[in-house]
Amino acid sequence: MRRRRSYPSRSPQHRHDAPKARGRTAIPHKLKASVDKNHKGFAFLVFENKKREDVFVSPRDAQALFHGDRVEVTFGPRGQLTDVRVLEHRFRELVGRYSPHPVGGAKGGWVVYERKRSREEVYVPKGAPAAKAGDWVRARLHFHEKGPLPVTAEVLDVYGATLPASADVGMMAAEFNLVEEHSAGAIREAQRMKLEIPGRDLEGREDLRKIPFITIDGETARDFDDAVHVERRKSGHVLWVAIADVSHYVTEGSDLDQEARSRGTSVYFPERAFHMLPRALSENLCSLRPNEPRLAMVARMEFGFAGKRTRVELMEAVIESRRRATYEQIQAERERNGRDRDWEYAPHFELYRQLRRARSERGSIDFDLPEADVRVEAEGEVLSITKRGRLDSHRLIEEFMIAANEAVTDWMMARRWPFVYRTHEEPAEEKLAAFQQLAENAGIRFRLDRAASPKVLAEIVRRLEGHPAQALLNVALLRSMKQAVYSATHGSHFGLASAGYTHFTSPIRRYPDLIVHRLLRRALRTERGAEQKLKPTARERLENELAEVCDHCGYRERLASDAERESVRLKQVRAMVPQLGNEFEARVVGMIEAGLFVEIADPFVEGMVSRESMTDDFYQFNEERMIFHGRRKKRTFRIGDPVRVRALRADVDRRQIDFGLVEG
After folding, report:
1. Which H or E run includes 348?
2. Alpha carbons 176 and 263: distance in angstroms, whole number
3. 3-state DSSP call for residue 651?
4. C-alpha to C-alpha distance for 459 and 475, rounded to whole angstroms
5. How far apart are CA 336 and CA 389, in angstroms?
6. Could you tell me the pLDDT band of residue 664, with boundaries at 50, 70 and 90?
7. What CATH architecture does domain 580-661 belong to?
8. How far is C-alpha 378 from the geometric centre of its chain's CA atoms?
9. Is 22 exposed, middle or buried, given 0-12, 13-18 or 19+ CB atoms closer than 10 A?
10. CB atoms near residue 125 (< 10 Å)
């Protein structure tokens, strides 16, 4: 549903924040933006064109908008905001608490959705007779073009006073407008495809079935979309990266294609994944299973011993992986055979070290952020939450995928083909200044006038290794940087210190990668005369289409990322519910005026010790020295300090964990 609202500059704030026109072509007539809505009701429109400043929307005008909506904004001839049209709703359902509110005999009520940064109240005209005040409910939203209310709700399920863990996935899907089931048309198309590869599908393909490819993935992975092999040569190494040829099966305009484009990406929750493609493709035809022939797009790259790429060749191929291994298996084998130069995978680790060293020397920033490994029962109850380790086997695959992405980008750029890039702009100076202050407070100093270089920031990240504030400062630096985005226009990737980058390696789970494969196939076939060159009109049409795909997929990527992060946070809160009152050994990982952030190891969660709860003394926060200091007892807290805490509160609504300090 698309709802139009008029914004005739009713307040000085509107007139101040709207972009000023300097003539008829000073600004685009329409721009796309995302809604950043505050719990107080007002909102900001954050434009996808980052050169445009955010625009304020008053609470009255923001009634029809939800946090995370994607909108199209229209400006008038004087630059005033005149219309906002919702292109994609963030919410299709809400899971919140019910509040009965009968009016004039009608059994109405409200669904109240409240999180840490947002709050929505949606009227339920028919009410929910089975629900009591404060009960958790799931409600479908109805958006209206006319009438007194822009949106109303219909209660579908009543959970009761406690939200069960089995409702978590549905709640995340509702909050982020995610769909698990595939359409009947997409499933039919996937099921009609045969596992056997007909001879006509091998025409024009390189037969690489003799190359001993290996897939290396996580223990629970079911879709294997990348396989690798490394050969040692006198002059260096040859790296083969084979990626499942999803574009062969998902043809442009098909039901599979339309659904994949709509989703934009797969989403991974602790319970299960919402796949971009039906399992018949993601776990079968397009999964590089061992000892089964599969169609693939392959990058063959030659490297000197310094890790510099000297040649690249791209091809459509058929491969047959020899082995499916886990990261842990390869890591264990490396530790047993690390000094054996004849070990089968010794060349893989030789090239990995060279590529990693070369990338580090050019200034690529390698964040090592802690991640939670969440294990759950079938119904969503938490079994364990631990800190996920990062092994050299993980890094090896990361390096090979980065190398392939850069090689494909360079190959396509040399041929001046329309393309989908992954770009990352350098951070804004004011954001770096704030990070510099925080780093100096933690004892890490650097010159701001040189910090715009990725090499300088990469060196700072290396200096942080082992520092008590490593996690805090890594996160702070990451937040000071702009988000990487998909773009149909070439741009560099600041974080990787790369002149050109793309996403080529995961077409099973990312739609932009699928588009990259299609473009690569057209370029390859044009080179060998199997397809005609692009005419100017066709090229312009394609570039416009790619720009729209990049905008849409960027929006869907951000939703998926937020959903995955929130789902982990919810499980962390759930893990602490039965632990309330228990004491834990913790570590101070951050601090602000309001209190200390502490981290415990088992379960691996982070929570806050509010200053109000620190009642044994009057504590003051010294931001310059990054310490909390007790005025009377002189007790101080620094980042990295061990502390003993008690779990006080685990708030499922706000997804917030509160601890209290244990004296002694």
Report:
1. helix 346-362
2. 11
3. strand
4. 16
5. 19
6. low
7. Beta Barrel (2.40)
8. 24
9. exposed
10. 14
Q: 4-88 and 580-661 share one CATH topology? A: yes
Q: DSSP states of 465-528 as a string?
A: TT-TTHHHHHHHHHHHSPPPEEESS---BTTTTBSS----S-TTTBHHHHHHHHHHHHHHHHHT
DSSP string, 291-314: TSEEEEEEEEEEEETTS-EEEEEE
* Helical pair 470-480 and 429-441, crossing angle rounded to 10 deg: 170
The verdict on whether omega for the bond into residue 603 sits within 30 degrees of 0, i.e. cis, is: yes
- Token pair 């003539």 is found at 23
Of residues 591 and 17, more confidently modeled = 591
Measuring CA to CA, which residue among 662, 657, 661 is closest to residue 579? 657
| 274-289 tens-digit pLDDT | 999 999 999 899 999 9
Who has greater pLDDT, 458 or 596? 596
HSE on the CB side for 30, CA within 13 Å? Answer: 8
What pLDDT score was predicted for residue 19? 38
Model confidence over 518-547: pLDDT tens digits? Answer: 999 999 999 988 788 899 999 999 999 999
Residue showing tokens 């790619």: 546
Q: What are the CA-CA distances from residue 114 to residues 53, 97, 655 (Å)?
A: 28, 9, 10
Tokens standing for residue 70: 């994607």
- What confidence tens digit (pLDDT) does each residue in 85-131 have? 999 888 889 999 999 987 666 688 999 998 877 888 999 999 998 99
Rounded distance between C-alpha atoms, residue 84 and residue 442, angstroms: 44
Q: Each residue of 637-646: pLDDT tens digit? A: 988 899 999 9
Q: Tokens representing 13?
A: 């704030």
Going by C-alpha positions, the residue among 571, 565, 218, 566 that lies closest to residue 383 is: 571
DSSP codes of every residue in 159-213 = EESS--GGGHHHHHHHHTT---SPPHHHHHHHHHS-SS--GGGGTT-EE-TTS--
Distances (CA, A) of 372 to 270, 479, 559, 570: 10, 19, 19, 12
The DSSP annotation for 361-397 comes to: HHT--------EEEEE-TTS-EEEEEEPP--HHHHHH
Tokens 């005419």 belong to residue? 535
The dihedral sign for the CA sequence 192, 193, 198, 204: positive
The pairing of beta strand 93-100 with beta strand 30-37: unpaired
AA letter at 614: M
Distance CA 487, CA 501 (A): 10
Q: Which CATH number is correct for 4-88, 2.60.40, 3.30.1490, 3.40.50, 2.40.50?
A: 2.40.50
Write b or e for each residue in 267-303: b if 16 or more Cβ atoms lie within 10 A of its Cβ, otherwise e: bbbbbebbbbbbebbbbbbbbbbeeebbbbbbbbbbb
Provide the residue ranges of all domains of the chain, joining segments of one domain with +: 4-88, 93-163, 184-425+482-570, 580-661
Q: With contact defined as beta carbons under 8 Å apart, do 246 and 507 qualify?
A: yes
In whole angstroms, what is the distance from residue 93 CA to residue 161 CA?
Answer: 19
Could you read off the pLDDT of 147-165 as tens digits, one per residue?
Answer: 888 899 999 999 999 999 9
> Tokens representing 460?
């700072």
Burial bucket for residue 124 (CB in 10 Å: 0-12, 13-18, 19+): buried
Please state, in angstroms and rounded to a whole number, the distance separating the CA atoms of residues 163 and 551.
35
Residues 169 and 95: their CA atoms lie apart, in Å, by: 11
What's the gap between Cα 13 and its chain centre?
Answer: 33
Return the H-helix or E-strand segment holding 228.
strand 226-233
